[in-house]
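ok here's DUF423 domain-containing protein:
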Amino acid sequence: MLKLFLMIGSINMLIAVGLGAFGAHGLQGKLTERMLEIYQTGVHYHMIHAIAILIIAVVADRLGNPAMLTWAGWAMFIGIIFFSGSLYILSISGIKILGAITPIGGLFFMIGWVLLALAAFRAV
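and the structure:
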């Protein structure tokens, strides 16, 4: 699992940095302040949770790869897709119904953090 989550986390960091740069340079002046703020929120959460996936990879390697950490990593990844993905599309397209998908991603983020905490608790 170490290799897979290192790849997923690294690729997501690459994408987040690219999308952050695109937002800062390519979308400036093309989106309203509010939509640009929404876009940047997506980038911010994307980066935080890509780093979390990298941390999960390292922790899973040290703890012998418990299943709970695997689920935590997948929950973080699914959270990025739903949360940040919906904010990217919402801010660029203006389709406000996508805002209803964002909390699903947030829920996956929270599930991932709970599973990470439980895996750490069990390892102690």
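+1. Helices lie at 2-26, 33-63, 67-93, 102-123.
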